Request: fold
Amino acid sequence: MDKSVVFIDGGYFSKLLKLQFPDSRGFPKKIDYYKFGNILASKSNSELLRTYYYDSPPYISPQAEQPEKLRQKKFDEFIYNLRLLDKFEVRLGRLRKYNNFQGQPIFEQKGVDVLLAIDALNLSLKNKISKAIFVTGDSDFVPVIQAIKDEGIEVLLYYHSSAVHRNILQVCDQKMILDDGIIDGCLFIKNP
Reply:
């Protein structure tokens, strides 16, 4: 059976959950990431080798106030729980803050795309996988997708139509829209 890896662009996916898949109270739906990776692999008729999650911690100012500390604590708990999952890897970059010409703060992830590219290339070059499943809409991944396709890896893309760059759509072998059916199939259910 084909082996696959799921690469989740955490910043992209968390925004989708917040904006496109809110629960009845308006909060992002809580996802069971272990189920999510397995569902995507199953839909591609492959066995999941591993799911990788890429993100950066929230920015914390030198004089962090309570809201920033709480945001950091929630992020740390989330990442801790992801790291407990079987067949799951978390890769973290950093969040850079700078001001634009009008003095407004801009936040930019650094290193996240490179970490994903390295993992995708390593797994492809070592013949560990035959399918790579990306959850993103970012065209920055076009070069790595093309490179792993050149190694014979089939590339599948899961995205939302509200947030996808056309260049990534052009380079992937298969494109599937993330919809309520997929999201609702992997909701996190608390044990009673």
Remarks:
- The mean pLDDT is 93.
- Strands lie at 3-9, 47-55, 88-92, 94-99, 105-110, 131-135, 154-159, 174-177.
- The radius of gyration is 17 Å.
- DSSP finds seven helices and eight strands in the chain.
